[in-house]
Design brief:
Radius of gyration: 31 Å
Largest sheet: 7 strands, parallel
CATH class of the largest domain: Alpha Beta
Number of helices: 34
Structural class: alpha/beta
Helix content: 40-55%
Shape: globular
Number of strands: 17
Number of domains: 5
CATH topology of the largest domain: Rossmann fold
CATH architecture of the largest domain: 3-Layer(aba) Sandwich
Strand order of the largest sheet: 3-4-2-5-6-1-7
């Protein structure tokens, strides 16, 4: 049982408590001096990467000191995990409690009684709960050993997870009663660190900063092409290993999780839009190894203590390098293998910039600066470890880290001394009052409104490097920054300044080797949709499949396109599906179609593959069977209830043509839909008969354009589409 606490701080006592309550023989990294500092009543700032053991830094002094430690934490799920962990260390459940909006009045009262009785050593509080008057009044009446502010980067607008409510912490602490403060974060640039200390009023705090280098992590950036296919291939090559895949949108999380599942991968989604019970259940399944993969937004992972995550994949590039570092830091926390792969496309950056529109100007400026750093990291061919550590104010001395794609596959270097001198001269010419993009545009001779308004097109340096574009000059600037010839004035949104080292280089230039940036082919994910063709069609097999389709169509007395459309046959002649399950991976083939018509097709493909000794693609990707699955289920249910299509469209914020497209997709995948109730209401019987007869007797394909041309202008496109749905559903499903 943990009792009142001690004031002794000799080594023996600290180690004794460590062993007795946490079961460890030794401290990790700088834990011991941090704990001693807190025990001595000093304000403390802890900068320790994910997996470094931050929690122990305040848990141990909390059980040793008299009174209750107030731990301010941003996430309810995180609090629960921490409280459960502390209770596992102790024989008494009262040792740790949380106070937040998830508690009933009865539960809150019990927590407060335990705290008042002196049994509770750690009380976890959300910043929102801290602001409530009743909680402030309660906390005034207890002995507080110290305040611990976890995830302290939330204080800074320059941090990757800014929370305005964190700004109110210090005034509330002053209201409750001052005790020592310990601020902890796993990621903070020098700017963010200063913001935290300033806002909490602990500028004089003792700072403990661990190295941000994670030697066991491998970093790689890939071009964003065929991402789903790549990810599935990677996971199957690393079967049984745990991994996290981060996406920026909830929609993408749902879609990708569904795609992985259909491919036989034990994956679950996680995002803030899910109900908390499902979210918690999915998180627990991942922790208990019932699922190998979590596909998540950044809502997942803060405080998640799973040591054996073997890979972290970023489907979308994150908004900031801090966020990226925090998320990749969840890999290999046990010191074992940890692969960090990010997919990059500049079109994603443009999307993120779009999201910022409409926000306050200051917020937009900060957001743009953070995005630029991310672009620099992705496109640069410099050692990724060196880039990351530089961002956090740390120098990586080695030239080759041997654990990132740029170091393992280095680009050829070239002499860049003259280019660097031109950059430094230009920064001085504009009096160190402009950002990198502006300097790059001057050197490239690119005139824009900013260049004109400052008359910088009249500078001697204007266009001195016009044989290269602004992208090249941005690359030179980035490498000059890493070499510390230049520095960014973060307070002023990244204005470039020469350092003393830069001035010396300008006076006496020496050799400076540069490496060209990566030029990632900017193919949008839409152009590489799940199931996109990446190989040539086997023409012989395609012809065989067409003959089979014709034979079946005659037997069934339906047009061939009703059975499978040409794009589906082409996909079969690429992927060679030999089971009904594999057939459902084919574009335009759902479970219904596969069951109804599929067996003869997979049998003939299997014989063909064996006879020709064909090596089938091993990276076959499912075209998401039910993209926007929630919408599709809603549509099917609504049609079963015979709701007017106008009402269904309005309920889901769709135009009528968009709704019809969704229904067409459902039918094409083999689900039978009965629209008679609606068709009979909006199209008269004779017109129905004419359109249906066309598809039944004359049509060579399901082409809408051909139908419109054949039927003539007296028939509206919407009418033809609705009857086509009816025809394909009745004849094909």
């Amino acid at each position: 049982m943990i009792t009142g606490g001690v004031k002794m701080t000799n080594d023996e006592t600290i180690h004794d408590f460590l062993k007795r309550y946490f079961g460890f023989d030794t401290f990790k990294g700088p834990q011991e001096p941090i704990i001693k500092n807190i025990l001595n009543g000093r304000d403390t700032f802890v900068l320790m990467p994910t997996g470094g053991g931050k929690s122990l830094c305040y848990q141990l002094p909390a059980v040793m000191k008299t009174g209750t430690a107030i731990v301010i934490s941003p996430l309810i799920a995180l609090m629960k995990n921490q409280v459960d962990a502390m209770r596992n260390f102790s024989t008494d459940d009262e040792v740790a409690h949380f106070l937040n909006s998830s508690l009933t009045k009865t539960e809150s009262a019990r927590v407060k009684n335990d705290v008042l009785s002196g049994k509770t050593k750690l009380l976890y509080v959300a910043p929102e709960s801290l602001t409530k008057e009743e909680n402030i009044d309660f906390l005034k009446n207890i002995e507080i050993s110290f305040y611990a502010i976890d995830e302290a980067h939330c204080i800074s607008e320059w941090g990757h997870d800014f929370r305005p409510e964190y700004r109110r912490i210090r005034p509330i602490i002053d209201t409750i009663g001052r005790s020592p403060i310990i601020a902890l974060t796993a990621t903070a640039t020098p700017k963010v660190q200063h913001d935290i200390q300033k806002n909490l009023g602990i500028l004089e705090a003792d700072v403990f900063k661990s190295s941000f280098n994670r030697p066991n992590l491998y970093y790689e950036v890939r071009s964003k092409q065929d991402v789903a296919k790549e990810i599935i291939k990677y996971i199957k090559n690393n079967s049984g290993k745990s991994g996290i895949i981060y996406c920026l949108s909830r929609k993408k999380v749902e879609e990708l999780a569904e795609t992985l599942k259909v491919n036989g991968i034990k994956a679950l989604p996680y995002h803030a839009g899910m109900d908390s019970a499902t979210r918690t259940a999915n998180q627990d399944k991942f922790l208990m190894e019932e699922a190998d993969i979590i596909v998540a937004t950044i809502a997942f992972g803060m405080g998640i203590d799973k040591p054996d995550v073997r890979f972290v994949i970023h489907y979308d590039i994150p908004k900031s390098l801090e966020g990226y570092y925090q998320e990749t830091g969840r890999a290999g926390r046990d010191g074992g293998e940890g692969n960090c792969i990010a997919y990059y496309s500049y079109s994603d950056i443009l999307k993120l910039e779009k999201f910022m529109q409409g926000k306050p100007i200051a917020e937009q400026e900060i957001g743009k600066q953070l995005l630029l750093e991310t672009v620099s990291y992705a496109e640069s061919s410099v050692c990724r470890r060196k880039l990351l550590l530089h961002y956090f104010g740390e120098e990586y001395p080695a030239e080759n880290c041997e654990a990132c794609d740029n170091c393992l596959h280095p680009k050829a270097q070239f002499e860049g001394s003259e280019a660097v001198v031109n950059v430094l001269d230009t920064v001085l010419a504009v009096k160190e009052k402009f950002k990198a993009d502006h300097v790059a545009n001057i050197l490239a001779g690119k005139i824009n409104s900013a260049i004109k308004s400052y008359k910088h097109h009249k500078l001697e340096m204007f266009g001195v490097g016009e044989e290269k574009d602004e992208k090249y000059w941005n690359m030179v600037i980035r490498q000059a920054l890493i070499a510390k010839l230049l520095a960014k004035d973060i307070e002023n949104y990244g204005l470039l300044k020469l350092t003393d080292k830069g001035m010396k280089f300008l006076e006496q230039p020496s050799s400076f080797m540069l490496a060209e940036d990566h030029d990632y082919a900017d193919t949008s994910e839409e152009e590489n949709a799940f199931g996109a063709k990446t190989a040539a069609v086997d023409e012989e097999l395609f012809s065989i499949l067409k003959d089979l389709r014709k034979k079946i169509s005659k037997l069934k007395n339906v047009p061939p396109f009703v059975i499978f459309q040409d794009p589906s046959l082409e996909d079969m002649a690429i992927q060679y599906p030999v089971t009904l399950d594999e057939l459902q991976n084919i574009s335009g083939v759902g479970a219904g179609k596969a069951q109804r018509y599929g067996q003869e097709f997979v049998d003939i493909i299997k014989r063909y593959v064996e006879e020709k000794e064909i090596i089938r693609p091993l990276d076959m990707v499912v075209k998401s069977v039910v993209n926007k699955s929630g919408i599709k289920v809603y549509i099917i249910q609504s049609i079963d209830m015979k709701r007017p299509l106008e009402d269904i469209a309005e309920a889901k914020g769709l135009e009528m043509n968009e709704l019809i497209s969704e229904i067409e997709a459902i039918v094409n995948y083999g689900t039978r839909i009965n629209l008679d109730y609606y068709i009979n209401m909006v199209i008269d019987e004779e017109r129905q008969h004419d359109i249906y007869s066309y598809f039944r007797e004359e049509a060579q394909s399901d082409s809408l354009e051909e139908a419109i041309a054949e039927l003539g202008s007296e028939f509206e496109e919407e009418e033809i589409r609705l009857i086509r749905i009816k025809f394909l559903s009745e004849m094909g499903n």
